[in-house]
Amino acid sequence: MNPRHSQKIAFSVLTICGIIVVAPIFAILLLLLIKGLPAISLGFLFGTGGAAESIFPAIIGTICLVLVSILTAIPLGIAGAIYLNEFASDNKFTRIIRLSIVNLAGVPSVVYGLFGMGLFVIFLRFGTSILSGGLTLAFLILPVVITASEEALRTVPVSFREAAFALGATKIQTIRRIVLPNALPGILTGSILGISRAAGETAPILFTVAAFFLPRLPHSIFDQVMALPYHLYIISTQVPNTPEKYKYGTALVLVVLVFSLNIAAIIIRMQFRKTKKW
Amino acid sequence: MVSDSLKNINPEQNISEITINQLDFYYGDCHALKNISIDIYKNKITALIGPSGCGKSTLLRTINRMNDLIPNVKISGDVLFKGRSIFDPDIDVVELRKKIGMVFQKPNPFPTTVYNNIAFGPRIHNMFSSKSEIDDTVEQCLKAAGLWLEVKDKLKKSALELSGGQQQRICIARLLAVKPEVLLMDEPCSSLDPIASLKIEELMMNLKKDYTIIIVTHNMQQAARVSDNTGFFLSGELIEYDITEHLFTTPSKKETQDYITGRFG
Question: What is the spatial distance between Cα B43 and Cα A261, in angstroms, rounded to a whole number?
Answer without folding.
Answer: 59
